[in-house]
Amino acid sequence: MKIAVLIVLALVFAVTAATAAPATQQTGVARLTHAQQHAIVAAGEWHKGCPVWMSQLRVVSYRYYGFDRGTHIGQIVVNQKVAYSVAKVFAKLYAMRFPIRDGAFSSVYGPHPWKSGDVTASFECRNAGASPCSSSTTTHHWSMHAFGEAIDLDPRENPYVGCGMTRDKTAVSYMKRSWHRPGMVTPAVRSAFASVGWGWGGSWVGSTKDYMHFSVNGH
Question: What pTM did the predictor assign?
Answer without folding.
Answer: 0.87
